[in-house]
Amino acid sequence: MPKFYFDVRDGSRFIxxxxxxxxxxxxxxxxxAAVAAAEIGRERLPQGExxxxxxxxxxxxxxxxxxxxAALTVERVVPEPGPQLSD
Amino acid sequence: xxxxxxxxxxAALTVEDRSLLRPLLQTVDLPRGAVIEAEDAIPPxxxxxxxGLASILAVTPHEDDKIEVGLYGREGMSGTAILHDxxxxxxxxxxxxxxxxxxxxxxxxQDLLVQRPAISAVFSKWxxxxxxxxxxxxxxxxxxxxxxxxxxxxxMAHDRIGHELDLTHEFLSVMLGxxxxxxxxxxxxxxxxxxxxxxxxxxxxxxxxxxxxxAGAAYGVPEAYYERVLGRPVANFAEPDQPGRTEQSxxxxxxxxxxx
Lengths: 87, 260
What we know:
Helix content of chain B: 40-55%
Domain HTH crp-type (chain B): 148-213
InterPro entries (chain B): cNMP-bd_dom_sf, HTH_CRP, RmlC-like_jellyroll, WH_DNA-bd_sf
Oligomer: heterodimer
Strand order of the largest sheet of chain B: 2-6-4-5
Radius of gyration of chain B: 18 Å
Pfam family, one (chain B): HTH_Crp_2
Shape of chain A: elongated
Number of strands of chain A: 5
Largest interface: A-B, 19 and 16 residues
Strand content of chain B: 15-25%
Radius of gyration of chain A: 19 Å
Region (Disordered) (chain B): 236-260
Structural class of chain B: alpha+beta
Order of helices and strands of chain B: HHEEEEEEEHHHEHHEEHH
Keywords (chain B): DNA-binding, Transcription, Transcription regulation
Structural class of chain A: alpha+beta
Distance between the termini of chain A: 74 Å
C-alpha cells in the first residue's frame, strides 16, 4: 500500500506530517484528508481566529497530490425592517 | 509467604489471600501489541500489571470502528469478567506500552475466588473505579476538545508510565478516535505551550501542572475516585504542590520517582 503524508496548514502555522499513513490508493487518501480537515475544522474554526484549515497530501516522493480545505463562514446580517405594527 | 509487588490490586489483598494466590502466579513480560483479552472469549489468564499500559478497546465486526474506552497500568488488573462467570464480551485489551505482569490461569483463580470471597471484594472495587474511568472517557469524548482529550490522555499515561511515553500518532489516533492529522495538530498545540515535547514516536511530558490546567475537569475526577475507593493514588509519584506554571513545575519528574 502506498504511503501518504498529511500536512496541516492552520492559518500561519504549517504542521508537517513526519509519520505518514499507508492507505490503499489516492481515493482513500482523499477521504482521509477530507475527514481530517473536517475534524480539525470542527475543533479550531469555531474559535474564530482562523477561517480555513487545509490538509495537504504528499505521496512518498514528497509530491503534493491533493489538498482538502475546510472553511467556516459567519456573517452577521442586518435584519430587514419587519411589517409595521399598527397601534 | 508474602511478596512485594507494584500491582495495586495484589497489594490490596490481605497477606493471607496474597500467599494463597502466590503459588499460582507467574511473572511474564508483556510486549507492545500483546492481546491479553480477546473479544467474546474467556481469557486464558488474568493479568496484574506491574508496569506498562493496557488499553481497552470497544470493537465491532468492522476493524476500523474501534476506539479506546479505558486504560490501566499497575493500578489495575484484567479479567474482571471472572466475577460474573461470563466471557469478556465485545471488548479487546491490548498492551500499548510494554511492561511486566503477574498472571494466573483464569480457571485456577476462579477456584480460589470461591474459597476466598475477600479477593472478589477487592476485584469488585477495581471494577467499580474502572467503570467510572470509562464513563469519564465517554464524557470527555463527547464534550471536550481534542487538545483537552489529548492532555487528559497524556496525563493518564504519565501517571502509569512516567514522563517519557513511546507513542506513535497512529496509535493516538485510535486512542482518541480521530484522524492522525488531527492528533498531529493537537500535539503541535500542546508543544507550542511547552507542555510536552514530541519527537517521532515519543512524547516527553515537560510540564505536568500546565497539562493539568490545560485538561481542566477532563482529568482528575476518576483518579480521585480511585484513590477514595482503593486508598492510594493511581500514580506513584507526589504531585508538585504549587499551582500554575512555575519554574519548578516545569522540571521533569525524575525517573526514580515514577517507579520505573
